[in-house]
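Dig into what follows:
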Amino acid sequence: MLKGSSVVVLGGSSGIGAAVARRAVQQGANVTIVGRDLTKTRRIASSMSRETVSLAVEMTSEPAIIELFKSIGQFDHLVVTAAAVQLVPFKLGASEQARAVFEGKFWPQYLAVKHADVRASVSLFSGLWSHKAEVGGCALAAVNGAIEALGRALAIELAPTRVNVISPGLVGGTASFNGMPEQHREKLFMDTAKRLPARVIGSPEDIASATLCAMDNAYMTGSTIELNGGALLV
């Protein structure tokens, strides 16, 4: 159980990050929610069942991340769900777009772990496309694969601090689909669920449940947890 432990969630102002923060609070953890927008982090913090700290940082700025973790000090568990990504056609997309995918997802996680003073565990986030990419997903597939490799290497280098990677498939209730018309979004979710052995897509709460398991399990490190409804089987 996480009761009495200190947890920092980068990307905790929405979706999976907010669900992780909420579950950690429910287990009695002292949670700090960090996002890009202080108004959003404060709103999420105010919805929790107990007092929660809310902070804002520019996730791609190393000086800002350094200052953030100086202000926080040592804590028990770090979760980094923050990401800003886009699909980039390999041949037609600009190289700068592909670099932006790394800037938006890989480097925030790398820099957060580098500068945080974490005692117990780190949970990073990759995604299904590291193993099952689609058209336009080359850059994101490469980023997800790099994060999984990073997690394994850090589990050795940072031991006894444990490092694991959570790899979700399609998850509803996140900001990733905000720009999609509702009708198209619901059709995507329905069509995907029909193809999956689980017959459902994921929810932020599903991913949060596995993340808390990784945080709490003293025997788990260097692992990538696949949560995709069986997508790799079909």
User: Anything to note?
Assistant: The beta strands are 6-10, 30-35, 53-56, 75-80, 118-125, 162-168, 224-227. The longest strand covers residues 118-125. The mean pLDDT is 94. The first helix runs from residue 15 to 26.
